[in-house]
Design goal:
heterodimer; A: about 140 residues; mainly beta; Folate-binding fold; two-stranded antiparallel ribbon; 1 helix; 6 strands; about 25% strand; B: about 400 residues; alpha/beta; 11 helices; globular; binds flavin-adenine dinucleotide; binds zinc ion
Chain lengths: ~140, ~400
């Protein structure tokens, strides 16, 4: 079981939390401009990183607040906990257990047709290691 | 009844050749699906100059970790068609592969515990019958007759209100299935190469022309991805994305017991399913761990929860012990249906997304995917399962039939 540090309540068992999947996925800025391919990307495509992954968690049986977490999906080691709306912290993060170096930056949004997302919401570069440019998040 | 003797293994299974510098097709992933695909490529399409590349040992991924439930009672026409085709193949494969992998058609029961369950179940039985899939609705008394150790009393938290039952469903020995396919592949000339990890692809424009591996670069005209939990990682290397999330899925076995459990019982609502393997161990599983994970392990509370559910349904299991627990990495999609078809990369094909329930689909996945690879166009059975459905919206929502059920 994961031991998760809620930013508001401290360390609690994983059973108190609800998983919210990939972090930093913004609602399309201009929904009516999206074509079917772009809608598919927004609705159904999420990064599936092997290695350091930015994801959302809800402390559902505690403070009932959402927060972001950086976790290694191979070792399950929690590398950082940070508030909704903050950019993904830079990680020195260990390389994933196997695969080439290129998989360390697994699934940066190579999506050829990733939805165009405006500069004020979150960019799609969620797992890029150079995400210092990730702007403020439009979290709900 | 007494516990069964396992049949003797054949003396020889497969060679361990060095990879050649080029093949007509390369299958990435030596689990059940990769091996079945190679078998049907060789048998149905005469493609014998092919290789299966496996980064670890043969069938050491989900193929070695699943709980071997085989059934075809899915709701929608597209699913019923492909899973029922698989079931029909399971019925003839032991003879065709000349290998007794202990396919035991002992039936599978899916319990209903709420009015919602009852409605969903009855609807699915009706749909199954229309699709030629054997299916029955059982009331609690009939449930008890088929599986006397089940507690059908009103005095439990979620009383059994009935069940769907598929008599032709059952279990098989998964490792024997893999070895059966591998042996036939080898006989037909297919190279099975273990400890061979694909680390990248060679492309000419948008066309794949080779695979890079830890044993060197191998030229090939076609690539079929059968990497289950690692499908996203491979797609990423090839330059496209898949709508897949990889999760840990765990299972457990008890010590050996006298035969007490004659069928397979699954419950979506209380999140457990149980069968008794040929040697006598109770085999149990449940749903995925909620978080994404490539660790082949999950959290212990998931095991605890499924055992609590099992003990409530089967009071005699309270005296059994957990012998082993383990986990695999399952490739889930949002509509709980697989993805089998072409990819945005020319001459590269993908078979993935079977998630928590792809063992039963192994023969049909292999047959249709081989057709797709050999001809470049999908077989009619896998056509609805193309990647495009996430764009067109023609999803095949099998959450009712597939949620916890495998
Ligand atoms: C605990 C558990 C219980 C399950 N129970 C059932 C059940 O009761 N019924 C059912 O129908 N299904 C069940 N499943 C699902 C089923 O096991 C899978 O859907 C199915 O095995 C997937 O196909 P496969 O056998 O080809 O996968 P795998 O055996 O996982 O094969 C994929 C292979 O690809 C290899 N690979 C990955 N990356 C690379 C690379 N870069 N280069 C080379 N090789 C690579 C892996 O090492 C692996 O061997 C269960 C799964 C689990 C984990
Ligand atoms: Zn909290």
């Amino acid at each position: 079981m994961l031991l998760i540090s809620c930013p508001n309540c401290g360390s609690r068992d994983e059973t108190e939390f609800h998983y919210g999947g990939q972090a930093h996925v913004a609602y399309p800025e201009n929904p009516s401009a999206l074509n079917d391919r772009e809608w598919a990307e927004f609705l159904f495509y999420r990064d599936n990183t092997k290695g350091a992954f930015a994801e959302r968690w809800l402390h559902s049986t505690g403070c009932r607040q959402w927060f972001n977490m950086l976790r290694d999906t191979v070792t399950y080691e929690i590398q950082a906990v940070y508030p909704m709306g903050s950019p993904r912290p830079d990680t020195p993060g260990p390389a994933p257990e196997s695969g080439t170096a290129s998989t360390a930056a697994d699934s940066t949004t190579t999506g050829t047709a990733a939805p165009k997302i405006s500069g004020t919401s979150i960019s799609g570069t969620s797992t890029s290691s150079t995400s210092t440019t990730a702007p403020e998040g439009a979290t709900k | 009844m007494s516990t069964e003797q396992l049949p003797e293994h054949p003396d020889f299974l497969w060679r361990n050749p060095e990879p050649k510098s080029s093949y007509d097709a390369v299958i990435v992933g030596g689990g059940g699906h990769g091996l079945a695909t190679a078998y049907f490529l060789a048998k149905n399409h005469g493609m014998t100059n092919i290789a299966v590349l496996e980064k670890g040992w043969l069938a050491g991924g989900n193929m070695a970790r699943n709980t071997t439930i085989i059934r075809s009672n899915y709701l929608w026409d597209e699913s019923a068609a492909i899973y029922e085709h698989a079931l029909k193949l399971w019925e003839i494969l032991p003879e065709e592969l000349e290998y007794d992998f202990l396919f035991s058609q002992r039936g599978v029961m899916n319990l209903a515990h709420t009015l919602g369950d009852v409605r969903e179940s009855m609807r699915r039985v009706g749909a199954n019958k229309l699709n030629g899939v054997d299916a029955e609705w059982l009331d609690p008394k009939q449930v008890k007759e088929l599986c006397p150790i089940l507690n059908i009393s009103d005095n439990i938290r979620y009383p059994v209100m009935g069940a769907t039952y598929q008599p032709r469903a059952g279990i098989a020995k998964h490792d024997h299935v893999a070895w059966a396919f591998a042996r036939k592949c080898d006989e037909l000339g297919v190279d099975i190469i273990q400890n061979c990890e694909v680390t990248g692809f060679v492309k000419d424009g948008n066309r794949v022309v080779g695979v890079k591996t830890n044993q060197g670069t191998i030229n090939t005209e076609k690539v079929g991805l059968c990497a289950a939990g690692h499908s996203s990682v491979l797609a990423e290397m090839a330059g496209f994305r898949l709508p897949i999330q990889s999760h840990p899925l765990q299972a457990l076995v008890s010590e050996l017991h006298e035969p007490v459990h004659p069928t397979v019982v699954m419950s979506n609502h209380v999140h457990v399913y149980v069968s008794q393997a040929h040697k006598g161990e109770l085999v149990m599983g449940a749903g995925v761990d909620s978080y994404n994970g490539y660790g082949q392990r999950g959290s212990f509370h998931v095991i605890e929860h499924q055992m609590a559910a099992a003990v409530e349904l089967f009071p005699i299991f309270a005296r059994a012990h957990v012998l082993r627990t383990w986990g695999g990495i399952v490739d889930t999609t949002l509509d709980a249906s697989p993805i089998v078809g072409n990819t945005p990369v020319e001459n590269m094909f993908v078979n993935c997304g079977w998630g928590t329930g792809g063992f039963k689909g192994t023969p049909a996945a292999g047959m249709t995917f081989a057709h797709n690879i050999a001809t470049g166009t999908p077989h009619k059975l896998n056509k609805p399962f193309a990647l495009e459905r996430f764009e067109t919206g023609a999803l095949i929502d099998e959450h009712g039939a597939a949620a916890v059920a495998h």
